[in-house]
Amino acid sequence: MMHTRLLLLLALLAMPLNALHADAGTTGSPPTQMPPPPEWLPAMDALYDAQLRAGGLDDRAFPPDAWWDVAMPLLTRERGFTTEDIGRSVEDRPLRHATWGSGETRVFLWSQMHGDESTGSMALADLFRLLGEHPHDPIVQRLRAETTLHFFPMVNPDGAARFQRRNAQGIDINRDARNLASPEARTLKSLFDQVQPHFGFNLHDQRAGYRVGDTERGTAIALLAPPYNAANEVNATRRKAMEVSAVIRTTLEPYIAGHIARWDETFNPRAFGDLTAQWGAGTVLIEAGGIEGDPQKQRLRKLYFLSLVAALDSIATGSHAGIDTALYSDLSENGDVWPDLLIRNGTIASPGLPPARTDLLVNFRDPLAETGGSINDIGDLQDTRARHVIDAQGLYIVPITREAATASRRIAPGAPARLHLARDPEGRDIVWTLDRDVDPAHPRPGKTR
Fold first, then answer.
1. C-alpha 90: how far from its chain's center?
2. How are strands ordered across the β-sheet holding 199-205?
3. pLDDT in tens, 99-111
4. Region 129-139: what's the mean pLDDT?
5. Class of residue 77 by CB neighbours under 10 A (exposed 0-12, middle 13-18, buried 19+)
6. Quick check: helix, strand or coil at residue 187?
7. Which residue has the higher pLDDT, 428 or 8?
8. Is pLDDT above 80 for 2?
9. How far apart are CA 190 and CA 184, in angstroms?
10. 389-398 residues labelled b (16+ CB within 10 A) or e (exposed)
11. What is the rounded CA–CA span in Å between residue 292 and residue 279?
């Protein structure tokens, strides 16, 4: 009876998060012998909303100083943490290491080595609250006794300050594990060598357009137990990472079944996740993709947090041991990356040019918030699939006319997406406007997805 009530409660809790896409369709057939989610999940879910979500991080493009303003009051000795400065970024921002717990199993978690991938950093701030503010929680007690947690948040503060992937030198830190050209990569490697962790968690975000395999379903979370060699072999260390990844999946299934994927397992000799696996840590990569209607990834942030709690608790208790690794390996790989917005069957009416009935494709700098749009393609795009589609049958695609120069007012690939959908070629009877950013107050016209 208790088990039935638990599953019913999880289903009720999951309902708001399961509505990811109007066209999601079936969620696929999970592997047989899917274990139930952790028994503590409903209580932790409720506790998160009431007492764990760290404030001040509602906009995921926060600067590094703002994140540390939230995190540092949580990382005090009174709460069981020690912190130290372990290096400086290219632009002299601090790189910091925080430690918590007294157990023998060493776990190393690092986040935001890509400056525009901030969901892991948000989830770590929430985890700090759980560890520091709830000392009598059974999970916290297990973690304190059995593990020592080492955190290197905000690996790329210079990139975070610009909300860009690379560091101030233009280096992708996650492709600098072999060369160690950047101070951030050298600091990460040095800390890894110092800690010699048994497990590592490499916390990332991925593009919102990724599909699950060859389906139309968007990937909300992707997992990877990175290979340690080009042969993609599985040794005891990697098997543990696959088991922990399977634990994460069972935790997330009630919320996003069918929207969990597996990252490409091709070995990359430059990548930190692959090399930390080679260096002896059972490494788990977590990638936050996208949930439609969650532009700041706050719903994904909660799922990320629950994933970390489940993974860490399975390490503390050893409960990951023996779990069917097919729960991980049977996940579909990330499939195609769908573009953001397709306007079909419209008629482009650019000044000084004959009208052209055609399709138009728009990509956004921030696909979830739908801001910073630019025109990606124009032409016959009837076979193109996109995250959102507007049927502009009978409408004109007219450039917004602000500049004086005629050429600058034409709609062309590479140009900013600044256009009206109108009932007339002059753009007087406007149905909808896209001025680089989608205005959420004005719904898209016609048939949309």
1. 25
2. 81-88, 94-101, 147-152, 105-111, 199-205, 282-288, 221-224, 260-262
3. 999 999 999 999 9
4. 98
5. exposed
6. helix
7. 428
8. no
9. 10
10. bbbbeebbbb
11. 37
- Contact assessment for residue 305 and residue 52, using Cβ atoms and an 8 Å cutoff: yes
pLDDT of residue 183: 98
List the structure tokens of 418: 């600044």
Q: Which residues of 6-20 are buried (b: 16+ CB within 10 A; e: fewer)?
A: beebbeebbeebbeb
- Domains in the chain: ranges and CATH: 2-337 (3.40.630.10), 341-435 (2.30.40.10)
The three-state secondary structure class of 158 is helix
Lowest-confidence pick of 191-195, 340-344, 360-364, 397-401: 397-401
Q: Is the pLDDT of residue 24 over 80?
A: no
d(CA 80, CA 100) in angstroms, rounded, equals 6
Burial of 216 (0-12, 13-18, 19+ CB in 10 A): middle
Taken as a whole, the chain contains a residue count of: 449
263 and 223 in contact (C-beta within 8 Å)?
yes
Q: Which residues pair with 95 in a beta bridge?
A: 87
Helix ranges, 115-235 (H):
119-133, 138-146, 157-162, 183-195
415, containing H or E segment: none
Residues whose CB is less than 8 angstroms from the CB of residue 119 and which lie 6 or more positions away in sequence, other chains included: 60, 203, 205, 288, 297, 300, 301, 304
Tens digit of each residue's pLDDT (9 = 90 or more) over 427-440: 999 999 999 999 98
CA angle 122, 123, 125 (to 5 degrees): 65
β-bridge partners, 185: none
199-205 and 371-379 beta bridge pairing: unpaired
Which residue type sits at 256? I
Give residue for tokens 């303003």: 69
Asked if the model's pLDDT at residue 206 lies above 50, the reply is: yes
| Residue pointed to by tokens 């502009």 | 392
Asked if residue 294 has pLDDT above 80, the reply is: yes
User: What CA dihedral angle connects 45, 49, 53 and 57, to 10 degrees?
Assistant: 120
Query: Measuring CA to CA, which residue among 36, 142, 120 is closest to residue 302?
Result: 120
At residue 19, does pLDDT exceed 50?
no
Report the C-alpha gap between 285 and 248 in whole angstroms: 11
The pTM of this model reads 0.91
Alpha-carbon torsion angle 320, 279, 127, 158, nearest 10: -150
**Predicted local distance difference test score (pLDDT) of residue 406:** 44
Tokens of 137: 């929680």
